[in-house]
Specification:
Layout lengths: L8 H14 L1 H49 L8 H14 L8 E9 L5 E9 L3 H6 L3 E12 L3 E8 L15 H20 L6 E8 L17 E9 L4 E3 L4 E4 L3 E14 L1 E3 L14 E3 L8 E6 L11 E19 L2 E21 L4 E3 L2 E9 L13 E5 L9 E5 L3 E2 L33 E2 L19 E3 L22 E4 L3 H8 L10 H10 L8 H4 L9 E8 L10 E2 L2 E2 H4 L11 H21 L3 E7 L5 H6 L5 E4 L2 H15 L1 E4 L2
Parallel strand pairs: 4-5, 4-23, 23-26, 26-27
Antiparallel strand pairs: 1-2, 2-3, 3-28, 5-22, 6-16, 7-15, 8-14, 9-14, 10-11, 12-13, 13-14, 16-21, 17-18, 19-20, 24-25
Helix pairs in contact: 2-3, 5-6, 5-12, 7-10
């Protein structure tokens, strides 16, 4: 075989390239190999991108939900531990660590100056091939924020401040009044916080009520009458002089001889009588039920009168001897302790004297309606100092009396009707917008220092009554609880936290429950078309106002015909009832309830949202019908009352994500 000459190296490679060019299968395989790497990277990246997008979306949703929950829990612009815990729990429920393979999940919150809750959620996300090539998993972070947003809002509180508000509900350590004060403070804090950083104007007003309301110092001078008639009295002639009865004075007993021994034993406890059905009534109390009867016998001997038994002054010596036992019982810490005081031939003495008394001055009165000039009480419409007037010969000794007006009113004219399906035209008291223009439409000062019962013991007589007796004055019966003037009402105005606190902590619990007068003025003060239309018609920028009344009471209507209230002394004035019949309390209760419902409808007709709260009492049909669109609540204790006010605050503001 002959030797084949070798080819140059370049010529040897060329046939290989030619063959390769003509080998299609080899071409495709190489191309596939070259293309597969970037294609795999693209697919893996798409999968990573989709996973990250899904994780970020879920993380953002959990962040948003958590700050919304936390913001709803905040009051007084403070991020409390409880609020933080609520947010953390809500975040964890929506995005637990390990979701979609994440790790190192964290959620943090803070509160900024505007009251917004700021949140940051972070997590480490798993990645595929790209992560392997770049060295590991990827960090992910989202931000979120929530705040309360609110428009121009007016809230008028009509608050029951009757005597029962001094009681505590079952399970509460504070009185109803104190619970109400705390709940109102929290509510106003929430509302003011919701308006932080916005242009919204938030205003609060207050109408404390019992049997009357204190609104007089809010009224213009020409909205008050110049003269008004009160159930009063006038002096008849000069006083007469009559001999006085001798005054008897006895000295202290001084021991002569004998002994006293004291011992104690336990006894049984039972309830004593009592009644809370009438203002000033006493609740039942505990007493010892098995105290033995006294067995002591006392003999007393007297010396002759010196200088004689008819002389004035005169004196004598009394000497007494006691034998036997006296018993008395007392209850402490719900246990009865019986004290036995045994006397053993115990002798003592004292000096008794009778002195000449000064002559008696007898004053004669005629009790009847009396017209008084009350012009001076109208004031100048600017000064808020106490106003008073001098009434000649009104005092028990026919002295002049300075009568002070605290600010409560007698209502303007009304009708003697129980049908208010349509408010009668001449029921001026139920017309919440009417600006006074004559004496029938003007208000009258509430002056209990002028008002007297005609005959005592509730023997009400419409006839003039002449007497030498000082009859019952309205503000002296039951310690003044029959003629209560609550704390002054406040018109709507922006109020700081301190201003709200200072006002509500001044409220006192006295009197009985007249719901109608509370609602009438709760509607009258915020009305956009009434007495204060220039202040209430629109917001400061011309924008609309959300108008609200929150009406809270701890009991149903409770009236008494001996109470001097916003319609006079009803036993004698009878302005809402048949003038020929003494009004019964039950009839008055039904009438006041009907008038309350009418006032509620008048408020709602003016675009005011009415919220009603029964606190520590049943939710009546009247409170339900009074409320706007079933916005009525029942709170059994302080905790529930706080939650109720918080719910109303949330409904009045709009919780929104702001980032």
């Amino acid at each position: 075989m002959g030797h084949r000459p070798s080819l140059p190296k370049a010529l040897a490679i060329k046939p290989f390239l030619v063959r390769l060019r003509h080998n299609v299968a080899g071409n495709i395989a190489l191309m596939a190999l070259v293309i597969s790497v970037p294609l795999m990277l693209m697919v893996d990246g798409a999968i990573d991108f989709g996973r990250v997008y899904l994780i970020k979306d879920q993380l953002q949703g959990a962040c948003d939900a958590a700050v919304l929950t936390t913001r709803k829990s905040i009051s007084q612009n403070t991020l409390t531990n409880d609020a933080m815990a609520n947010g953390q729990n809500f975040f964890a429920a929506n995005f637990a660590d390990g979701t979609y393979g994440t790790s190192n999940t964290k959620f943090q919150m803070s509160l900024d100056a505007s009251g917004a809750v700021l949140g940051t959620a972070t997590a480490t996300t798993p990645t595929g091939l790209l992560g392997s090539l770049t060295g590991g998993d990827g960090p992910l972070s989202v931000n979120c924020a929530a705040n309360m947003q609110i428009g121009h809002t007016d809230v008028m509180f009509a608050l029951d401040t009757t005597g029962s508000m001094a009681l505590a509900n079952d399970g509460d350590s504070q009185s109803r009044l104190q619970a109400m004060q705390s709940a109102v403070q929290e509510f106003t804090d929430r509302m003011n916080t919701a308006a932080n950083g916005t242009q919204a104007r938030i205003r609060f007003g207050f109408v404390p009520f019992s049997s009357n309301v204190n609104v007089g110092y809010l009224l213009k001078p020409d909205w008050l009458v110049d003269n008004w008639t009160y159930q009063s009295r006038i002096a008849k002639g000069p006083p007469t002089i009559a001999p006085g009865s001798p005054d008897k004075n006895n000295g202290d007993w001084t021991k002569i001889s004998g002994s006293i021994s004291i011992s104690y034993q336990s006894g049984s406890v039972s309830l004593s009588g009592g009644s809370t059905s009438e203002i000033g009534g006493k609740a039942p109390s505990l007493k010892c039920s098995n105290v033995p009867k006294d067995t002591d016998i006392t003999d007393t001997a007297y010396s002759d009168w010196t200088p004689s038994e008819t002389a004035l002054p005169r004196s004598r010596k009394a000497t007494r001897t006691k034998n036997g036992t006296d018993y008395s019982g007392s209850v402490k810490d719900k246990k009865c302790l019986i004290k036995a005081t045994k006397y053993n031939d115990y002798k003592e003495w004292r000096i008794e004297t009778v002195e000449k008394a000064d002559p008696n001055t007898i004053y004669t009165w005629i009790y009847r309606p009396v017209e008084y000039d009350v012009t001076s009480l109208a004031g100048d419409g600017i000064s808020q100092t106490k106003r008073s007037m001098i009434v000649p010969k009104l005092g028990d000794d026919q002295s002049d009396v300075q009568v002070t007006w605290d600010g409560c009113i007698e209502e303007r004219d009304t009708v003697q009707s129980s049908d208010f399906s349509a408010i009668p035209n001449d029921a001026y008291d139920l017309n919440i917008d009417l600006v006074p223009y004559n004496d029938e439409t003007r208000w009258r000062p509430f002056l209990p220092q002028l008002v007297y019962w005609r005959k005592d013991n509730q023997k009400w007589s419409l006839e003039d009554w002449e007497s030498t007796t000082n009859s019952t004055r309205a503000d002296e019966y039951k310690g003044g609880d029959a003629a209560v003037c609550p704390n002054p009402a406040l018109k709507l105005s922006p109020m700081s936290r301190d201003q709200v606190r200072n006002y509500i902590t001044s409220l006192e619990a006295r009197g009985t429950t007249y719901l109608d007068i509370g609602m009438i003025w709760a509607a009258r003060l915020p009305s956009p078309t009434g007495l204060f239309a220039s202040e209430n018609a629109m917001g400061p920028d011309g924008g609309p106002i959300s108008r609200n009344i929150i009406f809270m009471t701890d009991g149903g209507v409770e009236t008494h015909n001996f109470v001097y209230e916003a319609y006079g002394l009803s036993a004698l004035d009878r302005r809402r009832t048949d003038p020929n019949v003494l009004p019964l309390d039950a009839d008055q209760d039904a009438l006041v309830d009907a008038r309350f419902r009418a006032a509620c409808e008048a408020a709602k007709a003016h675009g005011i949202t009415v919220w009603t709260i029964a606190f520590g009492t049943a939710l009546t049909d009247s409170l339900k019908s009074c409320a706007t669109d079933q916005r009525y609540y029942m709170a059994a204790n302080a905790r529930e009352l706080s939650a109720t006010f918080a719910s109303i605050a949330v409904d009045n503001s709009r919780l929104r994500l702001v980032k």
